[in-house]
Structures
1.
Amino acid sequence: MKVQKLVEIIGADFYTGVPDSQLKALCNYLMNTYGIDPKHHIIAANEGNCTALAAGYHLATGKIPVVYMQNSGEGNIINPVASLLNDKVYAIPMLFIVGWRGEPGVSDEPQHIYQGEVTLKLLEDMGIQTFVIGKETTVEEVELAMAKFRKILSEGRDAAFVVQKGGITYDADVEYKNGNRIMREEIIRHIVKVSGEDPIISTTGKASRELFEIREANGQGHKYDFLTVGSMGHSSSIALGVALNLPNRKVWCVDGDGAVLMHMGAMAVLGANAPQNMIHVVINNGAHETVGGMPTVASKIDLVAVAKACGYPKVVRVDTLEALDRELELAKHSDELCLIEVRSSLGAREDLGRPTTTAIENKNEFMRYLADLR
């Protein structure tokens, strides 16, 4: 169905969420209609953040907010749904729109398979009533579902539309861009060159896909890399766990701005532990590019200052390959935790592939390599 019709049926005037490719029609509609507007539309750092923000909106206005997200974000909403929204606590009504990645019977990436299997069960276990919107779902069916939802919401309970692939559509395009000059894939290529045989932990999305293809093109194999295909926002914590247990080896984390924002507390833990052998590279294009290009707030904040405040002893920002190469070499030969923020343009190759090895194969090969380094 057309996303405009879904929005009309819902009848809400405030949306907050974390972008999802399955919900690209909704995300683009909201950006075209509102942009980022504190009265109507806010892209938040993570799904729990969205839920709390929406709760505040309801407390202040008495109206029903809408939270949109990929189903991978259900884990982030469990705490606020169970201990804040639930009708045994504050009875705060909320409507969720959830993109259903990894739907059973639909081919998808490994990180989505189990999440897809438990998507509806998790929502139902949290007391959230669900209705699935697919390609064949009619307007009348959605109107009937929303009528039932309104009764549920009036009782201080929560509901969710779960959207299958192609379940909602939007004809207009949105152009996402920034003024930065260097491409993420080129940045990663330079990191690979300087890191040599050091372990790399790469973040969720296109960064890991590009790292995989760079290794393929170089004929290097993939034992050096742990591709964090899921658990967005946690690659730096994984890298910290590796670095603390391989103190005599440089460990690199290739991170993204959206991931850093999602669980920024990880930076405080990193700074407090300050492993001398870890290099944290944050590629900042100010966008959730992997799921469509919708903006993050990272272009409006000073990540270098945040890292410094968190206790990183060495922090720097670069926006050219020449400066990047210089800082990578300095970090490689330093004896302190380093953060390098690289300002990146948006975009990726249209023929960018996906890893041809399984997640288990990646883990096993990486662990064997780390065992050899101990």
2.
Amino acid sequence: MKYESFSAEETAEIAFDFGKNAKAGDIFCLSGTLGAGKTVFAQGFARGAGYEGRVTSPTFTIMNEYENGRLPVYHFDLYRLEGECDLESIGYEEYFFSDGVSLIEWPERAEGVFPKNVYFVKINLDMSRGDAFREISIENFSD
């Protein structure tokens, strides 16, 4: 599926719909350059999952938990990781295979740890269509 967004608000609304329909155990891998809108997507997604608090990038903490919604949202940022071993050291499996949904920014840092049934969200900037334009493609590869 491909979506076009002309503002951060539109990106958040696209993500809101996915958060509203997410199920426990879903994993969304968010790819895009710095400033592409991965955290904006995570904010809209968490809101769709029923979380009403503040959602920030977990760049320095690696993972933030957003609870008190319809289901927990585990928001990972792997940008600072050296590889899969670093992710293993924080016990990622207890989050990936739990009663919540995981959002992973910079998933290419640990591609080998994801199960087969994962949603890949790619956010691309296209400055020729405006500073705020994003093309968002979402694919699900399952068994």
3.
Amino acid sequence: MNLCDIKTIKETMAMFGIHFRKEFGQNFLTNNMVVEDIADACCDDADSTILEIGPGIGSLTRELADRYRHVIALEIDRGLIPVLKYTLDGYHNVTVINEDVMKADLPTLLAPYFAKGKVSVCANLPYYITTPILMLLLESGLPFDSITVMIQSEVADRLCAKPGGKDCGAITAVLNYYGQPEKLFKVSAGNFLPPPKVDSSVVRISLYRDKPCKPQHEATLFRTIRAAFEQRRKTLPNALSAVFGELSKEELTEIVVGCGHSADIRGEKLSIEEFTALSDALWERIQQKQ
């Protein structure tokens, strides 16, 4: 059964009386090579467990199951559960769960698999919810080995941007705190059914076991990043003043300059290491004033 064949996809959906659902961002891959490349890139350890988010009709699921020890597939669309039971018949190392990843109890669900070895994430994410899902995974505290996602190319450019680039944003800095993102390859819209209006890219995030940046107060680091990009056209001291109201503009300028930056620098120029150092200086000054 070739689940990337357009005729097979349509026949399978007709067999179960289901249709593409825009609210779930459903676009199924029609290129076997792309599916195989994603599965290959997902992990370098065949003894791993893979958490797949949004398996659709199971084309990527089957490739993952052929390569790795176990696959946990979370599918939000109840109508696709019987389809997956049909397309994954005979794949005894796949567990399909009808649940929204944003509401799932991932620590409890994945605890037995973390106890056995590495766990990585693989997903073809709907464009409208890419960032919330990524932040959920990153902030979960779960020791994922890597996260491989196919997302809108524009979003991929932001995730993998370098400091100072036009695509650099808050998500860029936050992501670099948790791991190293790498854009692997582009997937044109013609490789999907139905074809989306934009192209996609596959990004792999290799997560740090031991973060190289260790802020004194993590919440202040994220607060600093948010402030820097909420008003990115302003100089960094002015942008910070909108969020750090407990410090004067003079104090903020003094702290920015004290960290080795010019007073007119903008936040987009800072690396995650520089954001960490700045957040530490801000945290120390706030503590002194209490």
4.
Amino acid sequence: MSATVDYDKALYDEIRLKNELAVDGINFEPDIFKDLELGTKYAETVQALFAMEREFHAEYIFPSCIVTPKGKYLLPILWNRNSLYKLTYEDGRYLIRRGHKVVLENVSFLRRPAYYGKKTSDGTEMRTVAQDVGHGNIYVAYSNECALKDKGLDCLFCNINATKAVYAEKNHINWKTADQIAETVKEAYKEGFDKVTISGGFIPERREVDYYIDVAEAIMDATGLEDFNGTACVGAPLDFSVFEKYKEAGYSTIATNMEIWNEGIFNVICPGKKEYCGGRQNWLNALEEEVNVFGRHKVRSTFVAGIEPKQSLLEGFEYLTEKGVIVLPSQWFVNAGSGLEGCRTPEPDWHWDVFEKTVALWRKEGITWDELRGATAEPFTVAHDLFRLYEGVTVGI
């Protein structure tokens, strides 16, 4: 583990505030962005997979991310009319208040990448194909629906199918072809992006591997890159021989998201993953085999932090980290349209403790920022920010 460097306390405090805002969301008038140059200067939210929202707002367009003034930390816009934190526009600037106290001044927003304004050869808007998730990473949701819906076995925290019902037609979000993805990745990489994650809901009849191979080949043909720094985010298969196929296709990392560690809670919260992916033990076996194929720190598993007891979650994190898996706590924000809509996530301090302990595990394991960014789809979580602060890593947004 690297020695702790001296860090700016103001940056630490900004990350702590970001943690609170990620739990509580932000209250604001929905027309507050009417004069912001959304869709030209600043990036708009594209609900391509999961809408991280307590309530849907198809009639309003919000920015994709707040950018904090000191650390330039990214915070997705999580609209909550009941939050004690309020975003206001005063004297030509945006700021965040809690009651009468200003807690964040000079708030800005994520700049819109140039490729958002371009189209693929078949006329598809590239912004609907791949989203800018910060620090050089783009995220492709090839499928904006999950086949588990038809079986009544959706993960209870997930709102992928509800998101599609509200936003897909309005925002022209559709299934992505390999060529659409390749053309978009090419334009994004020309602009300076250098990391892509391919993900989506469960495909009927589980044909992921053939599709992922087609996508990898198309990206390499379009970009001329043999190593395009891609992550294949897949469910746990019953046939582990497919992992070699993903690697041979050109993916440098792979992700299989368990979501929940405790077996009993896993079975209740993720019934489809239990029923169609061999159960929890098969997910564990799959992650270990992925490490065998791709190598240590080349495999990621994300967990929805806040549903199961903290002790259980951290036990899982320690176990998988020792196996060479990069674990990532995803702060549970209770989404509209999910099976758990109306529930509450734990308090900010609960999440903060999970993030601190996760970062300590990463550092003890000797994980580097390049490995962390390379294995995780969205490198802007509180844990990512804390890791960079403690390791003295400076990167652009």
